[in-house]
Design brief:
Layout lengths: L24 E2 L13 H9 L11 H11 L6 E5 H13 L5 E6 L4 H9 L2 E6 L8 H7 L4 E7 L11 H10 L5 E5 L14 H7 L3 E6 L11 E5 L2 H10 L7 H11 L2 H24 L11 E4 L5 H10 L2 E2 L1 E3 L3 E5 L3 H12 L6
Parallel strand pairs: 1-10, 3-4, 3-5, 5-6, 6-7
Antiparallel strand pairs: 2-8, 7-8, 9-12, 11-12
The chain binds pyridoxal-5'-phosphate (PLP).
Length: about 350
């Protein structure tokens, strides 16, 4: 006999991480290429000398700093082991096998995985023809047993963000006992003034929680720090189900130092946003379809040719993230990196 594990895990999709290929340029995981903010590296080194001690389980200093910066009660904040960790905790605290989760699709691949682990029913709502979230369809998809809705804005991997008017209309229509999670992993890259600030919406709606992360714009993906701002009883439940000490001490110190480096952050995000426009315009000129994007990546909805494009880029030593049969997501890098990607794209013929 062999050890028995849950049979349903056979159907659990594996999280596919962006590939790292030695000697190649990686534009596959929406990381910033510049590294941690310059002033943060020192804080990381200092914290490294203390790692024989357990981390502060409540991430108290970081929570207080976030509360001050964002003008929210610290009781409404939960820090997690990446916002991916918080996604899992959110399903855990809202759903059993009797309940359902509504989320857009295609979107962040953690949503189906985390929902499956808990055994919740998954209601996937297709994107619009413009590869954006279809909030009206999402509102219509909510059933009496829905407990949780993920709204990914900007949407990973396609790029569009939801605008204030449509999001408020959506929030006004959702039952108040359903938790709406605004996943704003890419918020710092948003330049469109019509895209609302999730923290402000979380202050106004009793059933809204916003997710943010230090992994993307702040350049701390390897240190695993994300946070949630939402109703106090939800934040408390999140803290209860968090794996003890999973929010590590070096990450807490780095996140804290990062909050003091807002000028460096702003400069970095502005550079990426302007490169985003250039890369998208050049790809459009080459004949690719490229949805509007507010994130640090572009999406090429190449359908059946997604894998072919990705292989083509690999021969040019550029790693992109292909979603077979669907499209390719390409992270915006620095100017030189983007030139390398554009040179590779130039020798691929989007029309076949
Ligand atoms: C990258 C990403 C996250 C989370 O990243 P963490 O590293 O776990 O903080 C969350 N949501 C979306 C949509 C992402 O793309």
């Amino acid at each position: 006999m062999t050890v028995r594990i849950r049979a349903d895990l056979d159907q659990l999709p594996a999280y596919v991480a962006g590939r790292t290929v030695a000697g190649s340029l990686k534009l596959a995981s929406n990381e910033v290429s510049a590294g941690p903010l310059p002033s943060v590296t020192e804080a990381i080194a200092r914290a490294a000398g203390e790692v024989h001690r357990y981390p502060d389980m409540g991430a108290t200093r970081l929570t207080d700093a976030l509360a001050t910066r964002l003008d929210v009660d610290p009781a409404r904040i939960a820090v997690g082991c990446g916002s991916v960790g918080l996604c899992e905790q959110l399903v855990q605290i809202t759903c059993t096998t009797e309940d359902s989760v509504v989320y857009p699709w295609r979107s962040f691949e953690a949503y189906p995985i985390m929902s499956h682990i808990v055994g919740a029913t998954q209601i996937q709502v297709p994107l619009t023809a413009e590869h954006a979230l279809d909030l009206d369809a999402m509102a219509a998809a909510i059933t009496p047993d829905t407990r949780l809705v993920f709204v990914c804005s900007p949407n990973n991997p396609t790029g569009p963000a939801v605008r204030r008017a449509e999001l408020e209309r959506f929030l006004d229509s959702v039952r108040s006992d359903v938790l709406v999670v605004l996943d704003e992993a890419y918020r710092e890259f948003v330049t469109d003034p019509d895209v609302p600030d999730g923290v402000e919406l979380a202050a106004r709606y009793d059933n809204v929680l916003v997710l943010r992360t230090f992994s993307k714009a702040y350049g701390l993906a390897g240190l695993r720090i994300g946070y949630a701002i939402g109703p106090a009883h939800v934040a408390e439940a999140l803290r209860k189900v968090c794996v003890p000490f999973s929010v590590n001490a070096v990450g807490q110190a780095a996140a804290l130092a990062s909050l003091d480096a807002q000028d460096e952050l702003r400069a970095r995000c502005a550079a990426i946003a302007s490169e985003r426009v250039r890369v998208r315009d050049e790809l459009l000129a080459l004949g690719f379809e490229v949805p509007e994007t507010q994130a640090n990546f572009v999406w090429l909805p190449l359908g059946d040719r997604a894998a072919e494009f990705s292989e083509h880029c690999l021969t040019e030593r550029v790693v992109v993230r292909a979603f077979a049969g669907s499209g390719v997501r390409i992270t915006i890098g620095d100017t030189g990196e983007n030139d390398t990607l554009l040179a590779a794209a130039k020798t691929f013929h989007p029309a076949g």
